[in-house]
Amino acid sequence: MPRKYVIHTKEVPNRFKAISRSGVIAWEEGCLKCAVCVKTQCVYHVYEHRSLDPRQMIDSIDNECMNCLRCVQSCPKQLIHKAINPEYKSLGDDYWTPDIISKLWYQAETGKIPVSGAGYPGPFSGPNFDSMWTDMSEIVRPTRDGIHGREYISTAVDLGTKKDHLDFKGMELVEESAPAVVAAPLPILLRVPAFGAFEQETIKGWARAASRLGTFLALPAEMNPEEAEAPQSCLIPIVSLPQAQSGQGNGHSLLVEILWSEHWRKAFERMSKSHPGALICVRVPFLKGAEERVLSVAKNGASIIHLEADFHGRSQQDETLLVRDGIRSAHLALVQEGIRDEVTLLASGGIAMAEHVAKAIICGADAVFIDFPILIALECRMCLRCKEGLSCPVEINTAPASWVASRVVNLVGAFHNQLLEVMGAMGIRDARRLRGEVGRSMFFDELDEAAFGQMGYLKEGYELE
Amino acid sequence: MNLNSNSTRKELPEVVRTPSRFRNPIGKYRLNRTTDCIGCGKCVEVCAYGVHEIKRGLVLTKNHYLCVGPDCPRPCYDECPVQALSLRKNPTFDAIGDLRWPPDLLVSTWYMAETGDVPPASLEYRVGASGGGFDRMRLALPPRQVKEEPENEEIDVGIELNRRDDNAHRIRIEVPFYGGGMSYGSVSITPMLSRIKAAAALGTFCSTGEGGYPDELKPYDDHVITQVATGLFGVREETIQRVKIVEFKYAQGAKPGLGGHLLGDKVTEGVARMREAVVGYPLFSPFPFHSVYSVEDHKKHVDWIKAINPLALVAVKVSTPTDVDMVAVGSYYAGAHIVHLDGSYGGTGAAPDIAKKNIAMPIEYAVPKVHRFLQDEGVRDRITVIASGGIRTPHDVAKIIALGADGVCTGTADLVALECVRCHNCESGRGCARGIATTDPELMELMEVEWGRRRIVNLFLAWRKELVRILKRLGMKSIRELVGRTDCLVHLDYMKR
Ligand code: SF4
Ligand code: SF4
Ligand code: SF4
Ligand code: SF4
After folding, report:
1. Nearest to B359 among A22, A118, A422 (CB)
2. pLDDT for the residue numbered A195
3. Of B26, B10, B183, which Cα lies nearest the Cα of B97?
């Protein structure tokens, strides 16, 4: 059994006031100045916490109100109302929804998994990962209780080539036959996002987080912090072909990433020479027919392949191609070729919630990269101002590395615990066994068609209700 | 004591109008009255919904929440001689609810709980806004008959729970639903008593949940289902002997595969005593039953109950994994009378968000799957299939029965009748600020048992009426005829035009 992997989290306060879903609006006009104003009776002491004079009526979009509506429903003159915060509604976009963003903030602040009362409030299903459900174990396929610590659930994964057999000479293992793998304690690797108002200090923080978590941070080689600032063994420098040819990158990395191009083999060979100790990962963009490319890269010597989708979890080229299906096809292509265990399949793009990690793995990835979540952990609002060269409303550029690191550790800690919840419910005790387990998941398209596909006929004169 | 309860059909309770506990009920619209009002009383006269009131010559808009807005056939704001009235949307309305329980459903459920009738207009009380499942399904009703059906024709919405034909009780419930488990601890004794008393009045049952069997429920023993869950909190031989139905809870739809969790704050003295635990310490009920790792083990459990109380019906509550059909058949062969499927979008006092959304399938998929499998196995008419997990409206009830269930369990709808606003804070701090899901002595006082009982009775009388209306439209005399009739349903996404 591997050493028990625990992520230590502790509360790390926000630097700015978080944007919350709704607020209280109150009007001055007609106020009776009651001896006991309903505002003083708030169960959550919202008005007190905000140090407002309860007698004073104000418009207060705030993050304290818990939406119990008691003040709204009790004011004798009906002067208090609730409203959705327009700033909240406009956070992010269709993919990075206000709900996802605010829950990422919460996880980075507290290190806790989001828990709430009452049932699921969201849409029935949705695109991409939202159209999947994971299985659970009932009576006939019992799980053990991993969540409350009675039995250990391992989230560790190996990156690299797992050989199908070992060769021995006498009692000695033949070195070439030994598996060439790097272990990660959880299937979540960090990656510097495509844009953001981050600075070298931020990167230092992310690198420290990766090191504290025992995982990796992928970053363009030119951003690589100095050895003194971050342990190099937790970095994955991303090296371009010219950089590879000029022999860039240092010798301490365990993993290096190169980009796929027509000439990827050249860069691959260069890097193998200049980084003899490192495993080389080839990043393949998620385009139409990516599985063919993944297969050919695998057959031509790469042991780690990174399938990269855009930040909405789709193909950069074609909006209708979803990363969920891209991972599935790449995985299946490797399985059919009989070389699945010889390569590690990493996926990135649109991994926004802990459930996406589990689902990407079920679809066939060995591990995933998270990029924008580590920016949102720093209170990023996905306003995209930085992309246009404007100032960041939450001044990510001024965040100290220590704060950055702790926020990201909290976030990943919460993700890790949620992964345990899902695996525990499925009765799976090893993340390596989760990979490609589509049989233990349910897909909307199939279920919906099976249940309702025949319910399309409306007889003449019949009414719908 | 095998009485054939068919002959002893119960009288239905009366609707007693039971308005909100709060001064300002929430509705969709608000009317603004300017100082131009001359107090002529025209608005009081034209409004059919009792929105305005006249008192000592003064005209007041007393009940904004009853206003039906643009659906009004004779709007006061058009009739007012001095244009003193204007209509606007209540801003708070859009700030409440969510996609499964949009503001329309919440407000119409409150209306039904107050009046025992569905809302007259302006509110969508039949479907939510989740964009799939129930919310994309519609009942297909045949063309209206020209001649009126005889008014007082009996439509039977009751169901028999024991279909095994064994020596256990014959139990008939008068409505095709009973109250799902909500434990003592996750809610206080007040809503618990309200629910059980309402169940008794309606001729049905209500489950205790896994938190034990408080003595206050004793007078209603004949309407209580006691739950045996993995934590075995408060389970004693004596409680099992007291009741007519015993329910095993293997899993809960909202957090399938994960045990129950009661936060330390909610473990008050009373709760601790009931659950034989320590005040202030969180309680976990593990997952799964560590004594059940096969259907054979499950049978052992059922046999255990039958040995303690041979007349009891055994219900098995499971969630909805891919092999839910196998689980259902397994339960049948283990001797269960009722298999209760709890879909993934059901209620909970507290659960990780990741579990509510992602683990196990929605009930709309599970029921047809189980129904077909039991049919193929030739045992469908030997077991009662109860569905739960996101049943919000009488239309949801009709739809899930048409998909193959015999009846349903309610939960969240009961709480909404008690004025739950779906704020999702049941688990935090002192619990529900509205006095529903809390054990905080001060907050508990916000609600009275009798008020709660009436609200729940009213809601379900309204549901019952709707079901009767739907069955009449379908030309059916009994809700039994609707079971598995998918031809009565149309799914909008598969509609052929
Ligand atoms: S709605 Fe509830 S929580 Fe919010 S301010 Fe009013 S009383 Fe407090
Ligand atoms: S908050 Fe806006 S400006 Fe700042 S990093 Fe995020 S997207 Fe960029
Ligand atoms: S009809 Fe107009 S003027 Fe007359 S009482 Fe109503 S609001 Fe006042
Ligand atoms: S805290 Fe109360 S009002 Fe809010 S969802 Fe829970 S039961 Fe409903």
Report:
1. A422
2. 93
3. B26
Low-confidence ranges of chain B (pLDDT < 50): 1-8
Assigned domain for B152 exists: no
Within-domain flag for B112: no
Phi, psi of A88 (to 5 degrees): -65, -50
> Residues of CATH 3.20.20.70 domain(s) within chain A?
157-448
User: Which value, to the nearest 10 degrees, does the dihedral of the CA atoms of residues A218, A223, A224, A229 take?
Assistant: -110
Separation between Cα atoms, residue A407 and residue A405, nearest integer Å = 6
- Give CATH 3.30.70 domain extents, chain A: 22-88
- Within 6 A (CB) of ligand 3 lie B 33, 37-43, 59, 80, 82, 84-85
Whether residue B212 sits in one domain with residue B76: no
Q: Which CATH architecture has domain A157-448?
A: Alpha-Beta Barrel (3.20)
Total structural domains within chain B:
2
Model pTM score: 0.93
**Do B336 and B482 reside in the same domain of the chain?**
yes
Tally A–B CB contacts below 8 A. 309
Q: Whose CA is nearest to atom 8 of ligand 3?
A: B37
Taking the CA of residue A45 and the nearest CA in chain B, the distance in Å comes to 11
Distance A396 CA to ligand 2 centre (A): 7
CATH T-level fold of A22-88: Alpha-Beta Plaits (3.30.70)
pLDDT at B106: 98
Among the bound ligands, name the one nearest to the CA of residue A396: 2
Cα–ligand 2 centroid distance for A390 (angstroms): 9
Q: Give me the residue from B99, B327, B359 closest to A133, CB to CB.
A: B359
Which CATH number covers residue B291? 3.20.20.70
- pLDDT for position B405: 98
Phi and psi at residue B302, in whole multiples of 5°? -60, -40
User: Which atom of ligand 4 is closest in space to residue A67's alpha carbon?
Assistant: 4
CATH number at residue B33: 3.30.70.20
Instruction: Let me know whether B78 and B173 are in one domain.
Output: no
Identify the pLDDT of residue B7.
41
Domain extent at residue B43: 29-89
Mutate to test the interface with A, among B61, B89, B92, B137 (most CBs of A within 10 A): B92
Question: Phi first, then psi: what are they for B258, rounded to 5°?
Answer: -120, 145
Residues in chain A with pLDDT values less than 70: 1-3, 27-28, 50-63, 138-151, 247-251
| d(C-alpha B436, C-alpha B136), whole Å | 31
pLDDT value for A247: 61
Angle between helices B103-115 and B449-474 (to 10 degrees): 100
Contact residues on chain A for B106, CB-CB shorter than 8 A: none
Where does B223-294 have alpha helices with state H?
237-242, 269-275
Please check whether residues B82 and B163 belong to one and the same domain: no
Under a CB-based contact definition with an 8 Å cutoff, are residues B248 and B228 in contact?
Answer: yes
Return the pLDDT at B497.
57
Tell me the pLDDT tens digit for each residue of A363-398: 999 999 999 999 999 999 999 999 999 999 999 999
Question: What ipTM was reported for this prediction?
Answer: 0.91
Give domain status of residue B261, yes or no: yes
Q: Which residue from B98, B362, B369 is facing A121, i.e. has the nearest CB? A: B98
Residue B315 in any domain: the answer is yes
State which H helix or E strand residue A343 sits in.
Answer: none
Give strand ranges (E) for B401-482.
407-410
- Chain-chain contact of B364 with A147 (C-beta, under 8 angstroms): no
Which of B89, B114, B139 corresponds to the end of one domain?
B89
